[in-house]
Amino acid sequence: MAPIPKPPGTRRRRNRAPEPVTLPASYGCRAPALPRIRDWRPETRDWWGDLWHSPMAGEFVPVDRYALYRLAVLVDEFYGEPDPKLAAEIRATEALFGLSPVARRRLAWEIGTPDPATAPARATNAPGEDPRERLRIIETDRKE
Known about the structure:
This protein is mainly alpha-helical. It contains four helices and two strands. The chain starts with 20 loop residues before the first strand and ends in a 33-residue tail after the last strand.
């Protein structure tokens, strides 16, 4: 006996890409405090603040904080002593939260264009200043 076809309203193509979701260019929610389980490195504190001011922060739900706290511990340890295995774990966890361009594409997240009126001004050189003048040669002990 042949299976009964589904009604047209419930049929779904399995290989169809999801519709992209446009995230606001800047979110800027208040970052929850890092847990008082250690003395956090300044780099980790900066990363934590940037994370919660990113467009992706608007997609986090309260329960996500606990996984992000664990990620913060890994980031803090990485800044203390970089390790390839630790970097791989950080990369895998960041992908779950859409914290890389590839992860955002997989999640079908797009970041909108910032409003020029509220966007922070970009750092520019002073008039007449040539940024190449700041470049210098670094001497090494290597013989060629």
